């Protein structure tokens, strides 16, 4: 579905935006019926950027925690000792 709908809409928006030198919402003024596509693209971009900020925060959290000794997720950490089993 992405190939048949998403890619053509993406290419059409790029070509119209390049020609009209406008953003994703105002590029669809030539066809008011499709104006919701530009708004939808902005909403999806905003949600994806929020989602990736959470992933980046997790990355920095685990990077900073990996410099501790013992590692907080290892069996040697005091809170984990009762839960770990020796193999």
UniProtKB/TrEMBL annotation:
Signal sequence coordinates: 1-17
PROSITE patterns: NA_NEUROTRAN_SYMP_3
Residue ranges the record marks as coiled coil: none
GO biological process: amino acid import across plasma membrane
Molecular function as annotated in GO: amino acid:sodium symporter activity
Lipid bilayer topology: Multi-pass membrane protein
Subcellular location, principal: membrane
The organism's place on the tree of life at top rank: Eukaryota
Regions crossing the membrane: 41-63
GO CC, alphabetical: plasma membrane
Keywords: Membrane, Signal, Transmembrane, Transmembrane helix, Transport
Protein name per its UniProtKB record: Sodium- and chloride-dependent glycine transporter 2-like
Origin organism lineage: Eukaryota, Metazoa, Chordata, Craniata, Vertebrata
